[in-house]
Every structure is written in structure tokens, then in C-alpha cells.
């Protein structure tokens, strides 16, 4: 699959490419299908529709444009709600409406049709945001920050839940369409299930949906006697000067020392 012609999406470097997850129950023209989202250093976010023009050929059509005062650090989109993590630690959302009259990819072709959604300052993060993810099934966004907290937001930019961790918190993402989340902290990844953080109202919504369970994965048993695929002692060493290099024989490659078996008893 390829595009017949290149399209200049931005008047600057492209910094992000994301895919918006559609909401099957939505009647909104933008939220009812998947879209491609691009963001650039020109401080604009553009939403594109993917069109299969011919066999093995695709094209993109711009359907919405959001102009910003500064470029976001990260972004995600669920339905017709765009969520952006800004450099000033704010979480800004924008409800976007598609311009049905648009049929071109020019920079000023799409009419600005969007509404910015804000939240109170005391609900926001107080340090750099280092994680952003969305769950289109529930219409929720998750953000993590160096202020040691993970916050869950709805599509109205309202705080739904806040969870506190420690200074090692480094990221968050939704693990599945049900809403379980993965949190990176203390040099490992922890799973936070929906029963441990979602309000009852959202659990009732999930009870009316048909969502497949995650496939069960067997644990890999650790074998401390298993030889590592990488052994630094077996890596050939060659001089930096080309004229002094020569092919090394296998006998010249140091073999790792065998472990001595210790009999117990």
C-alpha cells in the first residue's frame, strides 16, 4: 500500500503522528471513524481521513484543523476529543467538529470549528507530564507526571480519579479497551485494574458492553543455567588501523570458561 503523491502536512517539522480511535456508538461524523492526527512545529494539529482510492493506493484528506499558541509535548484523541499535554504542565482538551465542505489539503482550507475545554488549576499537574494515553471505549484519558501522580480525565476535561505514586513514576498507558492501565515506576511495570480505580458509574457502563478478555500468558520460567546469547568474551577485537587488521582464526577467539560443578552432600 502506498500514496501516489506526497502531501505537505505542515509548514514545519512534523513532531507527532497519532491515530484516533473511533467511537462506534457516536453519531458524530468525526468520532464515528478512525483518523490520522499530525502535529508540527508550526503549532497546528491536523486531522486526516484515510481514503482508499485504488487498489493498493491510499490518500489522505484533511477534515479538521486546530491552531495552537505553542506546540504540545504529547497528544491523544478519542472520538472527537483531542487531549494535549502542554509544556507548562497543563492538560488541554479540544472538542473538534469536521468541516463537511472541506475537499482540499491546503493550509487554510478547513474552517476552525472546535471548542477548548479547560479545568481548574488545582486539579492539574504541578510538574512535567511524562505520559498520556486514551481509552476510547470509556472516553477517558490518563496522564502521568513528575509530580508523582496519575490522573484520569473524561472527555469534558474533568478529573475523574487521581492516584499517587512516588518520584520514580515515569509513564502510564491503557493496557486494553476495558480500561486497565499500566504504570511504570520503581524499575518495573505495574497493572492497575479497573476495579482498583474506576468509579462505580464507569463500571456500570462496562457491564453493558461486550469486551473480550485479554489472552492469558504463561509465565516464562527463569533458568539461571541458560547461556546468554551475548557473551562479550566472544566478540572479536580488531585494531583501529586498517593496515594492521587481519582475519581472526576461531582459535584466537577466547572461549568462556566453563562453570565448575559443585557436588553437594
From TrEMBL:
Q: Which Gene3D superfamilies does the record associate with it?
A: YVTN repeat-like/Quinoprotein amine dehydrogenase
- WD repeats at which positions? 122-157
**Keywords assigned by UniProt, alphabetized:** WD repeat
Q: Which domain of life is it from?
A: Eukaryota
Q: What is this protein called?
A: Uncharacterized protein
Organism, per UniProt? Pocillopora damicornis (Cauliflower coral)
